[in-house]
Amino acid sequence: MPRLRLVALLAALLAAGCGLHSPLAPSVKGPGASGYRTIALRSVNDPRLPAAGDESSLATDADRAVFAAATVQASRAAADMRAGPGSSTPPSVVWNGLTTQLAAGVPLPPPRFARAYALVHVAIHDALLAARDHDRGIAGDRSVAAGAAFEVLIYLFPSQTQRIADAAAAEMALEGDNARSQRAWLLGRAVGRVLADRGRGDGSDAVFTGPIPTGDGIWTGTNPVLPLWGSCAPWVLHAGDDVQPEPPYAFGSAADLADVDEVYQVSLHRTAEQIAIVHKWADVSPPAIWNGILNQRIADRGLGTLDAARAEAFVNMAMADAFICCWKTKYQFWIARPFQRTPGLVTVITTPNFPSYTSGHSTISAAAAVVMGALFPDESAYFEGQAEEAAMSRLWGGIHFRHDNDQGLVVGHTIGAKVVAAMSQGGGAQVAER
User: Fold this and answer.
1) Which tens digit of pLDDT belongs to each residue from 361-413?
2) Domain containing residue 293
3) What is the 3-state secondary structure (H, E, C) of 79-138?
4) What CATH number has the domain bearing residue 344?
5) 303 and 390 assigned to the same domain
6) What are 130-165's pLDDT values in tens digits?
7) Number of structural domains the chain divides into
8) Helices (DSSP H) in 210-304: which residue ranges?
C-alpha cells in the first residue's frame, strides 16, 4: 500500500536527525542532560513532587513494609552470591511484563489494556527523568521505576496490591535496600500518584446510558463495549476527533455491497495460513502483541534503562491515542458487523461486541508501526508489514470489512506520525497536561 509506506518513511525520517545509533534522541535539546522532556510532569521539578532531599518525609507504613521485604530479599541474594532474576533487564520491561499479566488476568478490553500500559510507562519514564535531575542527585533506577509502577498498578488493579508490592520489593532488592534506593522509591511513588490522578480524571469511567441507534446497516446488539471511550483524554492528540477517517460507505451503495460480498467470498476460501494469521492477531490482546515485539527489540539491541522506558512510553501512548480515535469513529457511525449483514457467515473467531467501522487492530497496529519504525528505522518495513498483516487478519477472520481495515491503517499512520513528532522534540512540548 503506497500511502502506508510513504507515511512510515516520512515518520522515520522525522526522527532520524540523530541517525541509526540513537533514534530516540530528540532533534531539539530540551531540559536535562538527556535532552528529554517529561511527559506528564510539568518538569523534573514539578511542584507535585517532594522537594529535593525531602523524599524520605513521605514514607508510610506501607513503604516501610516494602523496604523490609526488599532487605530480606537482598540478604538472600547476597547469601546465594548471585543477583536476582531480571537484574540485567531494563526495569520498564520488568513492569511491562507484570502489567501484561495483570491486564490479561482481568481481562481488560483492548482500549483499557493500552491505557494501562501508557499510564505505567509514562510514570516510569518521568520518574527516571526526575531522579536524574542534578539538584535531586538520586541514583537507583530500579527503585524509582518500581515506586512509579507500583503506584499506578495498585490504582489500576487494587485487588492485586500484594502481588505488586512483592514485585516492587524484588526490584528494589536488586539494588540493595538502602537510604538511596528508599528515596528513589518514594520519588517514584510521587510520580506514580500524578499518573494515577491523571487516570482518575481522563474520562475512562464515563457511563453510557444510550440510546443505541437503529436503521439500515446499523450495529445491533446489547451492552456495547466502551461506547464513550472516544471522549477519553488522549496523550499526544488534543481529542478523539483530531484524526478521523473518511465516512463509511453509504448503505446499499456499490462499494458497500462489494465489501459485504468480499467478506463472504473470503469465508468460503480461507487457507490454513490465513486462519493461523487470524489467531496470531486475535488470541492475545493487540497492545500486548506490539509490546512483545518492542520488548524483543529492547533486548536484542541492548537498550539502556532510559531509552527502553522512553520507547515503551511513546509506543504505548500511540496505541492508547489510536484506540481513542478509533472508538470515536465506531460510536459515531455504529456500523454493522459482517455477520449482521450476512446471515450464516462463518467466522474464524468470535466477533467483538462493538461496531465495525473502523478496525481497532488496524488503527493501533499502524500507529505502533510508525513509532517503532522511527525507533528502529532499519526494521520499519517489517513493522509496516506486521501492521498490514494485522489488518488483513480481520478480513480473513470474517469480522471486518476491507474499508474498516484500510481506513484504520490511514488513521493509525497519521496518529503515529504525530507521536513521532512529539518524541523528536524531546517529548514534552506536544503532550498537554491533563
Assistant:
1) 999 999 999 999 999 999 999 999 999 999 999 999 999 999 999 999 999 99
2) 2-30+229-424
3) HHCCCCCCCCCCHHHHHHHHHHHHHHHCCCCHHHHHHHHHHHHHHHHHHHHHHCCCCCCC
4) 1.10.606.20
5) yes
6) 999 888 878 789 999 999 999 999 999 999 999 999
7) 2
8) 254-268, 272-282, 286-301
